[in-house]
Amino acid sequence: MLNVPPQAFPAPSSQQRVAAGGRAKVPLKPGRSLMDWIRLTKSGRDLTGLKGRLIEVTEDELAKHNKKEDCWICIRGFVYNVTPYMEYHPGGEDELMKAAGADGTDLFDQVHRWVNYESMLKECLVGRMAVKPIAAPKEISSTLSEEKKQLNGMLPEKKVLGASARDLTPSYDWFQTDSLITIVIYTKQKDMNAELVIVDCEDKRLRGEIVDDHSYLVEVDLDHAVQEDVAVNIAEKVGKVEIILKKKDNIHWKMLGQALESHNTFIKRTERGLFYRKCKLVSKTEVTHDTKLLCLMLPRSTHLCVPVGQHIYLKQTIAGTEVVKPYTPVLPFLPLDFKEPPRHDGAHLYLMIKMYSCGLFTQALDHLQIGDYISVSNPEGNFKKSQVQTSEDLFLLAAGTGFTPMVKLLNFALTEVGCLRTVRLIFFNKTEDDILWRNQLEQLALKDERFEVQFILSQPAKDWVGKQGKISSSLLSECVKRSRKDSKVLICICGPTPFTEQGVQYLKDLGYSQEEIHTFTA
Ligand code: FAD
Ligand code: NAP
Question: What is the C-alpha separation between 504 and 151, in angstroms, rounded?
């Protein structure tokens, strides 16, 4: 199996090698795992060749270091000597070389802006660019520089933006009663919902984000202390979001607080850094011999719902280096009654995680004790509910833990998509013991006639009477069929990258279009 550790520098997607839109990965030589890299960075070896000195790098100087044996790359104005990292990069040396001697920020952001390169490459830091390379202009830029830093209850002055940008830019206001502070965000979006609002409030620091393709942020160091619980009210039709804080002391606030750096900015979502909050591990239950269901409790002052098809990142410090990996929240179980949408439990996140015996991150996760804390990011992902809302036939191709995005998707489809006729999960595993939630899936198939599940094993025991094999064209032509000649179909795929890539190729060969296929990737 090819399951690679995170990379400190991304491999950009290539149409031909990564049909799924994810990234290509190459097998690493023995002794070149992420843990080996971390060990090397801690060995005290001079990885930059500069004996610990930091220098100012000109563009000309950067351009000189453009060879495999001497490769510097600039990310967000910082220059790294990635020569020693070459063999450790899961995307391969060639991908890394695409940014050799140049500014690799865009390349990096395209694929894995979540990878914590600052931590992974800190020993490779050469210095700063003398003149910061010009970044691509932001569509709608920050308004902070135009704004008064002190928030005194007045709407902040806005930078003069173009008419269309001005129309789109959310704004905020605040007011108070004896006991409450209410911050109102006018999102100017008619289809607001709870999944688009993320609020955190810790130690007087309030962060309220409205996320869609763009991100609007209210980020303030509050003037006075507030209580732990935070309420969020959303007027969906008019796009008004209220964040309600309870004052700790019933005193009159003269102002909301001090604006933090990104306060009142409206930028592309992908340009906003990931925000993490610490969540408490409250339970750990066995799903199979190697897979566990972890329940994490969000802080009381956090409002966060992970949308269908999206993932979060977990961050842990392993051997002194921050390591980040993506995981897709599931439900605590598969609800069998689809009459009404499940009530949202905003307080907990459920993660179904396979613990690899040699896995760097999952071994550390498995050692977490109940009551321990772990950093959880905001959600990411490009799945849109609208993709499934008009479908008549939904096919879910999952391999191993590639089942995780299918859990919420199944629930959403069977509960809220009226036009669906068939939902079929084709679930690939090595052995029977590896099948996740087999009982629940079989129960669901009995209960809901629209739903069917097929288990396919690649390494079955002799007595397995079900299907066996690997993803293949013949297998897909058998299992993925429109219920009517022209029915609208959506096929979702998730599993190891080669599984997903092959699946996409077979489906295309069978005549399905790119629009009919969704791949889950990081
Ligand atoms: P690693 O240290 O990366 O190793 C895992 C296994 O692969 C080990 O056995 C290792 O020996 C082997 N391996 C590592 N590198 C290579 C290589 N180059 N060649 C061959 N073998 C190699 N996982 C879940 O369990 N649940 C989820 O919900 C989930 N959601 C995800 C969502 C997204 C968007 C993505 C991209 C991945 C998701 N994953 C999920 C996978 C998860 O992010 C980790 O990759 C996984 O937990 C393994 O991490 P690790 O550090 O423990 O393993
Ligand atoms: P696994 O147990 O190793 O494999 C599950 C099934 O997939 C097995 O039948 C296996 O067959 C088959 N398979 C594995 N590699 C294959 C390949 N190269 N080509 C064709 N079939 C292949 O799977 P796992 O350990 O649970 O891994 C799940 C993967 O899903 C991880 O890579 C994880 O990163 C990914 N994932 C991604 C997301 C996402 O992107 N959103 C979410 C969750 C998980 P064999 O017997 O031949 O190995």
Answer: 51
